[in-house]
């Protein structure tokens, strides 16, 4: 915790914080929230599927509206009904998970319920400790690193406020895009498309790799920055002011889920269709969406 004008400011940690371990596998607060979100989504759709009716109830109607809307959205964005139906499961899964994960960070208790534990501190971070934290710091290594005793660690954290989560999703998307491109054109055809024209081959390769950074950091930066902003507003102002920022975060959470999903569909459509006549148009649309997302963020 820090202070500004004698007001207590919660400590903001860029990496997710470890809560416990299952064998050698560390479980962080973002991992825990991710698992809760996944279980909640799974249970909701299982409950809907188990009690399907000709006249839908509220849950079934909500699920049908979401599925039908996402199917129409995917097919229209892909530009082909057949391609849209093939990639619909991926697009719908990404959109629903990202949206729910984004909104999970706005729930009461996320980021505000703490446990007290000893936190490792790297030598490079010791100088950044507040005076009150230095009292609780114990050096345990000759290189200057140590342990911060009795530190408050939030139990829950939005999954997409963890770069590991957004980077994992971006890697899955980009690897899948390459696989679908090779499957559609064959290895030789894909390499030919990638190096058409030859002198632009390295640029195309860099462009494919930059998509990982683009997808991961855009989503992470917007969600993490939004959570920090809301936290600071709660600490520094009265209750009505943070409510305005919560409303904005609801909007931004939806926009980021849409942007990630749209770019995924465009990348797949571009890989399947090749780098021919549609390349410039798709890349132009990609750049426009990325610019819009950065502007909204």
Write up this protein.
By secondary structure, this protein is mainly α. The protein folds into 2 domains: 18-111 and 159-296, no CATH class; 116-154, no CATH class. It contains 8 helices and 7 strands; from the N terminus they run ββββαααβαββαααα. The protein has helices at residues 29-50, 58-78, 81-104, 131-135, 163-194, 201-236, 240-273, 278-296, and strands at 2-4, 7-9, 18-22, 25-28, 114-121, 137-139, 146-154. Strands 5-7-6 form a 3-stranded antiparallel sheet. α5 runs antiparallel to α6 (201-236). The longest helix has 36 residues, at 201-236. Mean pLDDT is 83; it is low at 2-7 and 276-297.
Annotation keywords:
disordered C terminus; 3-stranded antiparallel sheet; 12% strand; globular; 2 domains; two-stranded antiparallel sheet; 8 helices; 7 strands; mainly alpha; 297 residues; 65% helix
In brief, what are we looking at here?
With 297 residues, this protein is mostly helical.
Number of strands: 7
Query: Overall pLDDT, averaged?
Result: 83
Shape: globular
- In the residues, how many domains can be counted? 2
The secondary-structure element order is EEEEHHHEHEEHHHH
Q: How large a portion of the residues is in β-strands, by DSSP E?
A: 5-15%
Kindly report the spatial arrangement of strands forming the biggest sheet: 5-7-6
Nearest-angstrom radius of gyration? 22 Å
Task: Please summarize the sheet with the most strands.
Answer: 3 strands, antiparallel
Our count of helices gives 8
Q: Ends: how far apart?
A: 27 Å
Sheet/helix structural class: mainly alpha
Q: Tell me the helix content.
A: 55-70%
Residue ranges: pLDDT <50 for 5 or more in a row?
Answer: 2-7, 276-297
